[in-house]
UniProtKB/TrEMBL annotation, chain A:
Gene3D superfamilies: Sodium/glucose cotransporter (1.20.1730.10). Its main location: membrane. Belongs to the sodium:solute symporter (SSF) (TC 2.A.21) family. CDD domains: SLC5sbd_u4 (cd11480). The chain crosses the membrane at residues 6-25, 46-69, 75-95, 116-133, 153-170, 182-205, 248-270, 282-303, 380-408, 428-446, 452-477, 484-502, 522-547. It comes from the Bacteria. This is Cation acetate symporter. Coiled coil: none annotated. Keywords: Membrane, Symport, Transmembrane, Transmembrane helix, Transport. It is a multi-pass membrane protein.
TrEMBL record, chain B:
The keyword Kinase does not apply. NCBIfam families: Na_symport_sm (TIGR03647). It comes from Halovibrio salipaludis. Keywords: Membrane, Transmembrane, Transmembrane helix. Pfam families: DUF4212 (PF13937). This is Sodium symporter small subunit domain-containing protein. The lineage of its organism: Bacteria, Pseudomonadati, Pseudomonadota, Gammaproteobacteria, Oceanospirillales. InterPro entries: Na_symporter_ssu. The chain crosses the membrane at residues 20-42, 54-73. Residues 9-86 form the Sodium symporter small subunit domain.
Length: 577, 92
């Protein structure tokens, strides 16, 4: 059986599985549609959260980023995992205790104001919609690379699949599909990593392999990598860049705060049965995420080393173009690798010197995408990697779409415009707004806005600068009133939006000065990202200042805060629905 | 409220804040401390082929984060029991 057929079979089987789950998990009530009846086991929710969280960027792009940034890539590893510690200790258990369906709903009730709720909805939609564009383009790209269909065709198929299980099953359908998607993507990620680690070091565990010696040369993997990079004139892999310390600090902090404030991740913790379950579930989520995140550095480093040894590290060992390995030929067709034999000597020189360098295109995504072929793994592994890449994009897209549609149907429609809507009509409204969100996201996927490269950055910035501080104040500062919270959110939001729009042109220049050796076309602008932490600080200061000048919140609101802080207790907070 | 009196309620919250404070101090120490600020100095030490600062930035901090959340869950569980505010099986 040829490889393409195998990929079709494996990817097709994974789709059949998702659709099967959708039919099995049809949502019958708003409670099922929004929060899966709050009956999801903490470990299951942890797995679903991991799939929800790890997007196409984590799956396809992160190892490549680390491979080319070395130590500098650590900001993503620490930032995208450290946020879960904040989420687990500062937000998840308390918001779960509050016991409602959405994030804006907490803001509206806690700050006794529909204005706060609507601002919450706006922040949520801005953050989630910008985030979902990346997932939509990721879906299109994954399909077109693996299934040899056009980008548009791939995007349409992806939308159709998500439409089916998200509209029918809501949170319930999404949860169980995400669990299946996690299993697919983690297999797809770890199997090639284990093989490549075994081949190069004899260690099956990639986390140990990266710290051990190469079987052939007897030198440590990281030492060999630094040596080769040195020979070719690139920056050392493990070296710390002195100038970047402060920026690295803020960048990591921004990613952490942003992670904790992203609504599509927070609402996953509304689906577990108890406060206790919410706490441990965050731990499980991070376990499942850590499996991929601690494997990524190994994939990055080893694939980079492999890549450079293929191209040759000295004049004598340079790759003869006509004798290039099969996987190089395969990926040349996609345009992700390109060679230009500048001196017409038939060999390819890889060098940090632009004049001499003959590897004229080397897309970072190749590190994960071509990994199984570089390691000469069987065809079925390549097929699983294809299914994994698609699963990572679909699972995150579905989670984001649910956050958007529940904000529209529950917060705007039921909360603000039509409070007397019946349960049945609200469920219908939920399904319709889900379908509409998919259509909008799809439209944006077909016509990605010009600033698409910075959109994910924008989502993190918005979550960090607007939502996270308001939620934290709501729980930890009883005296925070609506005036303070609203002013803070608006200040954070405005500062961030202005900054991003102003910088969308020169973002890449700024990024170069941050981490040293960034490629101009990477998907993640640095300066808007590091700005999330600044926006959060602005939010904190403005909120405190305005709060001091305006009246205290009413007594019953201070009671809500008291109730949220304890796992049990009869209250307004847990009665609601 | 589930507490006998206001003092117990305040104490529970203060203990909770203390737990969060200590754990977040560790959180900041392994990531911002060992992974960023002291990374260069720690790189002088090696475990296997890993320079220590690099290891903290790409492996150690993540592993510590996982442990921290479970320790937090465990400590809070104990605190809830101490003050008699733990959830019963049917609490939903």
């Amino acid at each position: 059986m040829d490889q393409q057929t195998l990929i079709y079979i494996v990817v097709g089987a994974s789709f059949a599985l998702y659709l099967g789950i959708a039919i099995y998990c049809k949502a019958g009530s708003t409670r099922e549609f929004y929060v899966a009846s709050k009956g999801v086991h903490p470990v299951a929710n942890g797995m679903a959260t991991a799939a929800d969280w790890m997007s196409a960027a984590s799956f396809i792009s992160m190892a490549g980023l680390i491979a080319f940034l070395g130590y500098g890539g650590s900001v993503f590893l620490m930032g995208w995992t450290g946020g879960f510690v904040l989420l687990a200790m500062l937000l998840a258990p308390y918001l779960r205790k509050f016991g409602k369906f959405t994030v804006p709903e907490f803001l509206g009730d806690r700050y006794y104001s529909n204005t706060a709720r609507v601002i919450g909805v706006i922040c949520l939609i801005l953050a989630s919609l910008t985030y979902v564009i990346g997932q939509m383009t990721g879906t299109g790209v994954a399909f077109s690379r693996f299934l040899e269909v056009s980008y548009e065709m791939g995007l349409s198929i992806g939308m159709l699949i998500v439409f089916f299980y998200a509209v029918m099953g809501g949170m319930k359908g999404i949860t169980y599909t995400q669990i299946a998607q996690y299993c697919v993507m983690i297999t797809a990620y770890t199997v090639p990593a284990v093989f490549i680690s075994l081949q190069m070091t004899g260690w099956a565990l990639p986390q140990i392999g990266l710290g051990s010696t190469l079987t052939e040369q007897g030198t440590f993997v990281l030492d060999r990598l630094d040596q080769v990079l040195n020979e070719l004139g690139f920056a050392e892999y493990v070296a710390v860049n002195e100038h970047n310390r402060v920026n690295m600090f803020f960048y990591t902090l921004s990613l952490m705060i942003g992670t904790a404030g992203l609504p599509h991740v927070i609402i996953r913790f509304f689906t577990v049965p108890t406060v206790k379950a919410a706490r441990s579930s965050a731990g499980w989520a991070l376990v499942f995420i850590a499996i991929l995140y601690t494997t990524a550095p190994t994939v990055g480093a080893m694939a980079r080393l492999n890549l450079m040894e293929t191209f040759g590290t000295t004049e004598a060992t340079e790759m003869v173009y006509e004798e290039r390995p099969q996987w190089v030929k395969n990926w040349e067709q996609t345009g992700l690798i390109e060679f230009t034999d500048k001196d017409n000597d038939g060999t390819i020189t890889y060098s940090s010197n632009e004049e001499e360098n003959e590897v004229t295109e080397l897309n970072r995504d190749i590190i994960v995408l071509a990994n199984p072929e570089i390691a000469m793994l069987p065809d079925w592994v390549i097929a699983i990697v294809a299914a994994g890449g698609i699963a990572s994009a679909l699972s995150t897209a579905a989670g984001l779409l649910l956050a958007i549609s529940s904000a529209v149907s529950h917060d705007l429609l039921k909360g603000v415009f039509k409070p007397d809507i019946s349960e049945k009509s609200e469920l219908m409204a939920g399904r319709i707004s889900m379908a509409a969100s998919i259509a909008v996201a799809g439209y944006l996927g077909f016509n990605p806005p010009g600033f698409a490269a910075g959109t994910v950055a924008l989502a993190f910035g918005l979550a960090a600068a607007s939502l996270f501080p308001a939620l934290m104040f709501g729980i930890f500062y009883k005296k925070m009133n609506k005036e303070g919270a609203i002013a803070g959110m608006l200040a954070g939001l405005t500062v961030n939006l202005l900054y991003v729009f102003q910088h969308k042109g020169i973002m890449f220049v700024a990024s170069t000065s941050f981490l040293g050796d960034l490629d101009p076309n990477w998907f993640f602008g640095i300066s808007p990202n590091a700005f999330g932490a600044v926006g959060a600080i602005v939010n904190f200061i403005v909120a405190m200042a305005v709060c001091k000048m305006t009246p205290e919140p009413p007594a019953n609101i201070q009671h809500i805060v008291d109730d949220v802080r304890v796992p049990v207790g009869s209250s307004l907070a847990s009665g609601g629905h | 409220m589930a507490f006998q009196n206001e003092t117990l309620k305040k104490q529970y919250w203060r203990d909770n804040l203390r737990i969060i404070g200590w754990l977040l101090a560790v959180w900041a120490f392994v990531s911002f401390g060992c992974g960023i600020i002291f990374a260069e100095a720690l790189n002088a030490i090696h475990i296997g082929g890993y320079p220590l600062g690099f290891w903290f930035a790409q492996q150690g901090s993540i592993l510590t984060f996982v442990v921290l959340i479970f320790v937090y869950a465990k400590l809070m569980d104990r605190l809830d029991r101490k003050y008699g505010v733990q959830e019963t099986e049917d609490a939903k």
